[in-house]
From TrEMBL:
This is GMP phosphodiesterase delta subunit domain-containing protein. Belongs to the PDE6D/unc-119 family. Pfam families: GMP_PDE_delta (PF05351). It comes from Eutreptiella gymnastica. Residues 23-164 form the GMP phosphodiesterase delta subunit domain. Coiled coil: none annotated. One of its GO terms (cellular component) is cytoplasm. InterPro entries: Ig_E-set (IPR014756), PDED_dom (IPR008015), PDED_dom_sf (IPR037036). Signal peptide: none annotated.
Length: 165
């Protein structure tokens, strides 16, 4: 859980968007992400340099330390760059377990300055004690579908399959 990755440059859609979302998607880059225990500040995981990789339009895999599932809350920092202005940048995420939606989240960043690099921090609370699913059930069976929007305008989306190691 608690994961966002990157966006597709529009290749997940079979049509060209006339509303400018293809241009926005091509100018949006997720550079890196880190996750820390929100209470202790201990960094639990940090991505490699995603901006330098061809990661668009695929189901990607992420290997996250299983110890992160023991955190009461996780602080997630996402560093992203945008070539274009966005008025109301936001993310909708669906967490799927064995292809069934088990959680949905919306995160709002707001205004994005053109040609800027930003770090977006979010804190995510874990399920209460006794309600967290076991690592063996989650690992490899959990997919995060992330969709990026500027207001109500679709920008791009992607999927990441999580493996807890």
């Amino acid at each position: 859980f608690f994961f966002v990755f990157c966006c597709s440059n529009g290749s997940m859609s079979n049509s060209t968007n006339r509303d400018g979302s293809d241009e926005i998607a091509q100018g949006l880059s997720i550079n890196w992400m880190s996750m820390s225990d929100a209470y202790s500040g201990q960094e639990m995981w940090k991505s490699e340099d995603w901006a330098a990789q061809d990661i668009w339009g695929k189901e990607l895999a992420a290997r996250i330390p299983k110890e992160i599932l023991g955190c009461k809350a996780v602080s997630r920092d996402i560093n992203f760059s945008s070539k274009h202005k966005m008025e109301k940048f936001r993310v909708e995420q669906k967490v799927l377990l064995n292809d069934q939606v088990i959680e949905e989240w919306t995160f709002v960043f707001g205004f994005v300055i053109p040609n800027s690099t930003n770090t977006w921090s979010s804190a995510i609370e874990a399920a209460p004690d006794g309600e967290m699913l076991p690592t063996e059930v989650l690992s490899g069976n959990t997919v995060i579908e992330t969709t990026f929007y500027d207001g109500n305008q679709f920008v791009c989306s992607n999927r990441v399959r999580l493996y807890y190691v």
